[in-house]
Structure to design on (464 residues):
């Protein structure tokens, strides 16, 4: 697992080395994948891209991601490649354009080697709802990798690639990063253009990187962030360089005392150990409250499913992917959707349609938006008293494949700590923080105020 970082690969290529060794190594690792993390390897395309990067470097360009192999989640459009969100519904769909985030990475010299497995349409916390079957956790193949970006977390944790892209609507980058043992950041909402990301919950979705360390994550984030006229919610803010010097001395680290309750004992011990390390390094621990956080899961499953049901209505069997036979248009819609969507997708569409329907809208959707506002206010109050908030990413380490599949509520509770920052739009990351007694990775979550992504990464770097 001591593979070179993205920075080291780019430095070697910019210094005149060939892109081939790193790209070939990544392609071979992806082709030999035993975890079902990779669903498509793009050897020809990768080698052509790599040659183009070599030519640009020979011509004198210096590229921040020169020759860095990268894997992307199957909900990110890359022109000419399939994009299925691991759903039968999008079987055969080929993306007609490239997501802005991906295009920016490629322009900076990155080489896409593979597309990764995910929960169907990003609905899930275990990567078990994929039409390609579940991903296995690289540390213990009898366990889940987390979800929904389970494939992207696994390929980095297993060392196939130094960096990958995922998306996070309620925890889908941070929770699998935590359970697989790598770093993953959900950027501030608006930081990264969502153009070309197949939408789940448009007011919640963000694209973000997985990496083995904070500096690599920062490099990828800096490269893909920034205003994009193709996404009206994208923000002009650039990601600052990671501040040098001591990120921890005098840092006010908030923590919610209640977060320590009900955790797996090893996760609690890791939280205590992280707090102690921070204190020893000169940080100040500040107890805070997020009084409405307890409503976050419920609020998310109203807003997130409402937005999902609306976004997924375009999957009608006519415009994209799978189409069933039917006597008339209605019958084609109904049969295509019945065959194309899996159980969890259907559950989300039905819940979302219900909460948006006339007569229930005020009771559910509007109420959820009001609670969302209260959650935002909680953060505003908290971040007046502290610079970052530390807590666990997930209450437990990776659970067994199949363990929570029949109990959606239990599955939804996996995201109890990650969802609030999607509702607020604030940035948050998960960093590796040791292992439990079975050797399974534990992650700690750091949250910050809007556009504090670089500060979070600097703190993560200092804690590494
Ligand atoms: N696990 C959460 C869900 O199932 C979050 C998914 C995500 O962030 N895409 O909705």
């Amino acid at each position: 697992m001591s593979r070179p970082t993205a920075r080291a690969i780019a430095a070697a290529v910019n210094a005149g080395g060939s892109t081939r060794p790193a790209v070939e190594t990544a392609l071979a690792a992806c082709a030999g994948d035993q975890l079902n993390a990779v669903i498509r390897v793009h050897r020809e395309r990768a080698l052509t891209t790599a040659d183009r990067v070599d030519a640009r470097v020979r011509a004198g360009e210096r590229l921040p991601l020169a020759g860095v192999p990268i894997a992307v989640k199957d909900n990110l459009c890359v022109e000419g490649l399939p994009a299925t969100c691991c759903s039968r519904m999008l079987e055969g769909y080929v993306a007609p354009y490239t997501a802005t985030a991906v295009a920016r990475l490629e322009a900076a010299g990155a080489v896409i080697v593979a597309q990764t497995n995910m929960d169907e349409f990003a609905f899930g916390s275990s990567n078990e709802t994929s039409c390609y079957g579940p991903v296995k956790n690289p540390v213990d193949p009898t366990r889940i990798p987390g979800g929904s970006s389970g494939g992207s977390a696994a390929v980095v944790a297993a060392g196939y690639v130094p960096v990958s892209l995922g998306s996070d609507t309620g925890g889908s980058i941070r929770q699998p990063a935590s359970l697989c043992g790598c770093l993953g950041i959900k950027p501030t909402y608006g930081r990264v253009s969502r153009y070309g990301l197949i939408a789940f919950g448009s007011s919640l979705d963000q694209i973000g990187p997985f990496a083995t360390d904070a500096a690599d994550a920062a490099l990828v984030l800096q490269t893909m962030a920034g205003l994009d006229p193709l996404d009206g919610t994208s923000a002009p803010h650039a990601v600052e360089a990671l501040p040098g010097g001591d990120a921890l001395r005098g840092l006010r680290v908030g923590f919610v005392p209640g977060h320590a309750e009900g955790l797996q004992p090893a996760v609690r011990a890791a939280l205590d150990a992280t707090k102690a390390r921070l204190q020893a390094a000169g940080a100040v621990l500040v107890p805070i409250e997020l009084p409405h956080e307890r409503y976050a899961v419920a609020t998310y499953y109203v807003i997130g499913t409402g937005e999902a049901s609306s976004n997924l209505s375009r999957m009608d069997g006519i415009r994209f992917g799978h189409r069933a036979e039917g006597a008339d248009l209605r019958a084609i819609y109904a049969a295509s959707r019945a065959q194309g969507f899996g159980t969890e997708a259907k559950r989300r569409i039905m819940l979302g349609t219900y909460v948006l329907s006339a007569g229930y809208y005020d009771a559910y959707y509007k109420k959820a938006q009001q609670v969302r506002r209260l959650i935002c206010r909680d953060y505003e109050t908290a971040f007046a008293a502290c610079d970052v908030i530390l807590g666990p990413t997930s209450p437990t380490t990776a659970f067994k494949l199949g363990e929570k599949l029949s109990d959606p509520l239990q599955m939804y509770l996996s995201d109890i700590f990650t969802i609030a920052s999607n509702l607020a739009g604030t940035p948050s990351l998960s960093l590796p923080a040791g292992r439990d007694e079975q050797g399974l990775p534990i992650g700690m979550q750091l949250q910050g105020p809007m556009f504090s992504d670089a500060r979070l990464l600097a703190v993560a770097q200092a804690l590494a």
Remarks:
- Residues 122-125, 148, 168-172, 200, 304, 415 surround glutamine (CB under 6 Å).
- Residues 249 and 281 are 6 Å apart (CA to CA).
- The radius of gyration is 21 Å.
